């Protein structure tokens, strides 16, 4: 079998690359080692975690907020098994949708482990022990990532677990210890805290969400602490030991003192690493960098001209939407088009409640780059829509160039900011100024008014409702 393009991996980057290439007239095959399509994101990442986040959020609201809305119910209870079953159905429907897209776009799907025979041939080792070789003019590596750990931690996947196992627990932990205060740790910590677990987040950096704007990290920690999550920042973990149903984590605080934490589960959420095992990159001489990521140029092309790589397996933020955009870029480039991707405008989102979203530069990045900037901030508490819904935590912050007024970064904490951030991304894509955004009429009452007000605060320092 000979194809114009072979895609190895069917996650968001891989399947989107395949669809776009097929739309542009290419004959495409996609190889996936698991029995379902969609990769980490759809099977054991983005989609199942959001399903549990939404279910747990509904329960949390019933317990803590229904009364203030005048809704009286008997003491709410939950069936964790049903929550997990619902999550599984959401995943099944979503991955089934990917299979539909493959059929619709005449993309051949091969199940098995893909590995390079040479630069144009890929062997597919199937689960039944057989194998098949297919040929491709161009090949796209989209094999994603897997959870990282620390050298001294033994992941037994029962009590000392990664995000994959945390999404499949058959019980709510009594005390969940979370190593890592990034997106994954905070989202899954939120799920189990809402359902009654004690949750302690242990973070090496001096703040949670270490790569995000400092104001965002501070606000999010304050709100999650109010919800009952405990935090130990500036704590370097030194050991994790399991004894029966108990897990003990030892860490050194910023004073160098040893601190001990005890729980029944420990989620290791210290990031993810590129997954290239079994690909046979060495057979074709594809280079990897010091972090084990496939090295690529600005066109996502490896040092072997007909082999490309996208998504978590290459440098940059490990985000599904970043992988999708890279998939489109490679497919269009191979079709002779001139696509582009602006890595500065890829939004970062945390699906806690309130949500967190950001695009562009943080204040610290602008300071480090010695950019002359100005800042405008507006509290969600000042919005009529926020008071109506009861979601008064958070803010929107707009950073703009002090001389040109061009928007350089937008950072949000609040209800539905995961969707709201795209207003900022669109504005920045078209090089909008803070004044431009401030002068656009926003619907009232909406959460989006906070964006207008923060932009006006950045432009002339005079928001209208603060």
UniProtKB/TrEMBL annotation:
One of its GO terms (molecular function) is dihydrolipoyl dehydrogenase (NADH) activity. The active site is a redox-active disulfide bond. The keyword Nucleus does not apply. Belongs to the class-I pyridine nucleotide-disulfide oxidoreductase family. Residues 346-455 form the Pyridine nucleotide-disulphide oxidoreductase dimerisation domain. InterPro entries: Class-I_Pyr_Nuc-Dis_Oxidored (IPR050151), FAD/NAD-bd_sf (IPR036188), FAD/NAD-binding_dom (IPR023753), FAD/NAD-linked_Rdtase_dimer_sf (IPR016156), Lipoamide_DH (IPR006258), Pyr_nuc-diS_OxRdtase (IPR001100), Pyr_nucl-diS_OxRdtase_dimer (IPR004099), Pyr_OxRdtase_I_AS (IPR012999). Its EC number is 1.8.1.4. It catalyses: N(6)-[(R)-dihydrolipoyl]-L-lysyl-[protein] + NAD(+) = N(6)-[(R)-lipoyl]-L-lysyl-[protein] + NADH + H(+). It is an enzyme of class 1 (oxidoreductase). This is Dihydrolipoyl dehydrogenase. It comes from Polaribacter marinaquae. Its cofactor is FAD. The keyword NAD applies. Binds 1 FAD per subunit. Keywords: Disulfide bond, FAD, Flavoprotein, NAD, Oxidoreductase, Redox-active center. Residues 3-327 form the FAD/NAD(P)-binding domain.
